[in-house]
Amino acid sequence: MSSLSAKIQDVFNEPACDRNRGKDAKARKEGCSKPLTPGAAAGGCAFDGAKIVLQPITDVAHLIHAPLACEGNSWDNRGAASSGPTLWRTSFTTDLTELDVVMGQGERKLFKAIREIKEAYGPPAIFVYSTCVTALIGEDIEAVCKRAAEKFGLAVVPVDAPGFVGSKNLGNKLAGEALLDHVIGTVEPDDAGPYDINILGEFNLAGEFWLVKPLLDRLGIRVRACIPGDARYLDVACAHRARAAMMVCSSALINLARKMEERWEIPFFEGSFYGITETSEALRRISALLVKKGADPEILDRTETLIAQEEGIAWKKLAAYRPRLQGKRVLLNTGGVKSWSLVHALMEIGIEIVGTSVKKSTAKDKERIKQILKDDNHMFEQMAARELYAMLSEHKADIMLSGGRTQFIALKAKTPWLDINQERQHPYAGYDGMVELVRQIDLAIHNPIWRQVREPAPWDRPPAVKDELSSTKSATATVQAFKKFAGATAVDFGAC
Ligand code: SF4
Questions:
Q1: 3-state SS class at 111
Q2: Ranked by mean pLDDT, which of 43-52, 116-125, 364-373, 380-389 comes out on top?
Q3: Residue whose CA is closest, atom 7 of ligand 1?
Q4: Nitrogenase/oxidoreductase component domain: from which residue to which, for each copy (predicted)?
């Protein structure tokens, strides 16, 4: 068995995953990917998944050993943010051509590319990604990386996750394996302390981890490494000296968390920073784990004080939105953000959940949603676009929260929509993030455009309206007539 096959089998056998444990040995070997429907979008290959996990390490050069299209497919397709370096967003590829393949020039071209990046940018590390073409022609990326690392004196990390081996989710896990094999534990920090933690599976989308980090700073807790959001190579290399870890997105990096616990005795828990209660609970559990690992127990009291202060401020800000949003109905159609924590967060301010997708939720997540919603009638695995449209156009929801792919269904049904997936523009984590989420929902629902687009078109209006509109002489009179019948309040027709 090749080392990649062995690695994949290892990843498919995940003791920390409930769904995985629920399968028999044969089903486990097949992984979690469902067969693709012909004509449907696959939702990302394994290479794509590996790149998603590793690219937010911001001072690293990410070099794709492939024909040009693979990098075009995966480059910067998430809204992760960096507080400093910009190298991670520079696109590097060996741009392999047919001639390179036929002439067997791939490895030579890769070595040359590594040298060029080293000379032009001097990064602390270069991550080299294999892809379908380079894996199929048998490029020995690992050997090239090893040789380049010796020759150029920098870390050159092979990421062996060619697209054809499986889904995006498998690629996420193979990226975690690459970090375990080649990065984490390779540097010894000289400042390890009893309050060091790792945050795993946090991507710092729209910079939202920056809303959480100040809370940890106030407690004197240092984030040794946030993997991968806004991470630096050296921090990741030193991550094995953290005392505790929090897993933010379990399906992506559960193997990393479990293996770090086994190798370096870093206990972890799974939590979320979405919603006020969940944020408080996450802070409590971080402090409790640190105390278990030898930190001063006084941190528990300080954590409670901080939680009381921050919750008070957040609830005060949210009080202004409660009368405007009480009883509003939300349809959640997402796989990216943890549905259960979002469901909980929205219900905290009186919003009603009319449906939530659980397609990418684990069994534990589904159980949590069931407990929060009190029944499972509102949970759906997947809703076809037609059903989604029918639900929205019959006004069974006041707003849909989803990713960009389904936004046009909502817009066609003349229903407010808010992006909560990886491309979103607004940060929703922590106490301030929750206030921002509610603010955005309020803005979307109460945007005057919805009233206007739901008005019948002029040619569909009753004859009396049409007559009055057509009999008016001046532009001002037309505007006044239109206002009268449209009941327009928000648009300044006079300025047209
Ligand atoms: S790795 Fe393979 S599946 Fe993924 S983008 Fe490249 S060619 Fe396509």
A1: helix
A2: 116-125
A3: 132
A4: 45-443
Atom of ligand 1 nearest to the CA of 131: 1
Query: What is the pLDDT, as a whole number, of residue 425?
Result: 87
If we measure between CA atoms, which residue out of 342, 382, 335 comes closest to residue 169?
335
What are 190-193's contacts with CB under 8 Å, separation 24+?
A: 192/224, 192/238, 192/241, 193/222
End-to-end CA distance of the chain: 71
The pLDDT tens digits of the residues spanning 121-160 come to 999 999 999 999 999 999 999 999 999 999 999 999 999 9
Q: How far apart are CA 396 and CA 278, in angstroms?
A: 28
In the chain, CATH 3.40.50.12380 covers 196-315, 322-447
Q: Return the CATH number of 322-447, one of 3.40.50.1820, 3.40.50.12380, 3.10.20.740, 3.90.79.10.
A: 3.40.50.12380
Starting at the edge strand found earlier in the chain, the sheet holding 61-64 runs 92-93, 61-64, 125-129, 155-159
Residue 390 exposed, middle or buried by CB count within 10 Å (0-12, 13-18, 19+): middle
**Which CATH superfamily does the domain covering 41-182 fall into?**
Nitrogenase molybdenum iron protein domain (3.40.50.1980)
Count each helix (H run) and each strand (E run) in the chain, helices first: 24, 13
What's the 162 CA to ligand 1 centre distance in angstroms?
7
What gap in Å lies between CA 64 and CA 129, rounded to an integer?
A: 5
Task: Please give the full DSSP string across 295-312, using - where no structure is assigned.
Answer: --THHHHHHHHHHHHHHH
Q: What is the rounded distance in angstroms from the CA atom of residue 369 to the CA atom of residue 363?
A: 10
- SS3 of residue 397 by DSSP: coil
Cα dihedral sign, 422-427-430-433: negative
Is residue 245 scored above 60 in pLDDT? yes
Looking at ligand 1, which residue's alpha carbon is closest to its atom 6?
70
Does 25 have pLDDT greater than 80? no
- What is the Cβ-side half-sphere exposure of residue 456, based on CA atoms within 13 angstroms? 9
Asked if 77 and 404 touch (Cβ cutoff 8 Å), the reply is no
Spacing, Cα 108 to ligand 1 middle (Å): 21
Average pLDDT over residues 212-220: 97
Q: Strand, helix or coil at 205?
A: strand
Residue 362 token pair: 């684990």
SS3 342: helix
CA of 45 to the centre of ligand 1 (A): 6
Beta bridge partners of 419: 402
Cα(434)–Cα(346) distance, integer angstroms: 9
Assigned token pair, 243: 């005392």
Ligand 1 centroid distance, CA of 132 (Å): 5
Which runs of consecutive H residues, i.e. helices, occur in 97-182? Answer: 98-103, 106-121, 132-136, 141-152, 168-182
